[in-house]
Amino acid sequence: MQTTSISAPLSMRRIAAGAALALGLAAPLSAHTAEGAASPDPCHVGVYRLASGGWVDVGTTSDGGMRWRLPDGRTGLLRVAAEGKIESTRGWTGAPDGTQVSFGACEEGRIAFAGETGAKQAFEVVETTFEGAGGIKLAGRLVLPKGSGPVPVSVMVHGSEDYSARAHYFEPRVWPAEGVGVFVYDKRGAGGSEGKYTQDFRVLAEDAAAAAREARRLAGARAARLGFDGGSQAGWIVPLAATKVEVDYLVIRYGLAEGPLAEDRGETLRRLKDKGWGPDVLAKAAKVTDATAKVMVSRFTDFSELNALREHWGGEPWWQDLEGEFTGLIAKAPEAAVRAIGPQQDKGTTWEHDPMPVLRQVKAPILWLIAGEDLEAPPEETKARLVGLAKEGRNITVLEFPDTDHGIREFETDDGKRVYTRYADGYYAAVLDFTRTGEAAGTYGAARRLTP
Description:
Elements: H1 12-23, E1 46-50, E2 55-60, E3 66-69, E4 75-80, E5 86-90, E6 101-103, E7 110-113, E8 116-120, E9 124-131, E10 137-144, E11 151-157, H2 165-168, H3 171-177, E12 181-185, H4 201-219, E13 223-231, H5 234-242, E14 249-253, H6 260-274, H7 279-297, H8 304-313, H9 327-332, H10 335-345, H11 355-361, E15 366-371, H12 380-391, E16 396-401, E17 404-405, E18 409-414, E19 417-423, H13 427-437, E20 448-451
Parallel strand pairs: 11-12, 11-13, 13-14, 14-15, 15-16
Antiparallel strand pairs: 1-2, 1-8, 2-3, 3-4, 4-5, 6-7, 7-8, 9-10, 10-12, 16-20, 17-18, 18-19
């Protein structure tokens, strides 16, 4: 998550990249735009209260860059240009946006941003280590607004990223500036946490439940409400965790109410449709995704169905346009190579997970935010399922942000490719309202309310 950081929802991004290099294939496109550049000093990371009363957040990106963001979703990358001047570029476009940014000395905690001055905010911070599933030591951090009064506390749950949440999530700075506490922890195998990186949802849900217990213990009487918040892959993990520990709310951002295998199918078919292929090809491609799913579930041992389809359709032009989370790579690569490389890259993803029975067990109210044009997690079936759950009487609020992609990011199209410009207006406000009250009853930018 960018909830937090935008990350590919499934482990096949990692598998595909490694396999593509080994097989001499073109590496698949990532959800990330490269942000590596000379950046301001990391000492300037923080949320700054501006003279007008608003805030600007400055944080590091997972590839060493530095990014600012405003409450309405505007954002830009900061880099050091000629003669030490700081330049800001719009969204993820790489194009200068004219925003003037400068900092005081590290110890001063000052910023000048777009003609306003601001001061870095300080919060109550407690570092901790707690035990996750199997006794693995996980590194966590509780961040609360200054004071002694009760506040909501959100436990941030990861997407599929493999970097430190404590280092790169923005919520532990921004939410306390809005009067909301945050408990953030490094997932197993990342940052300061022990263990081996995994995408076994059951294990990760146990870790998240342990994080919630630790957050409640540390926050004590200051925790007025406590809940889970996470994006992308966390859409599968958060409901599981909520069946293991009592919480007051769940926030799920751009996740799926379908299983991981359905995600690959949806993405594969969407990409083919975008390239102009018609219903006949889409019907064939759906069968290919069933066959590649069998490869994944078998942990790269059962290629019988795929090989039969490859022999029948592999010479047709659309076959080379197959993409998706894993279908494109597996279908186009030699079987021997996939058998050799797949197990090395496999992260234990719970491929056959069915989220619907789990969602029916969740008692706490849920806010589900959908990106209307999500390419990584096509939302059509998820919307239908969530509306159905609401009609069953489940307490689910569903907001869809139209014309946004994974991460609730707006975009422009340049030569057929999406270029991301900002986060949607109202995105942060919806999350904060629900976190505070269990309701998102306001108007949130262009968001459409699907339930209730």
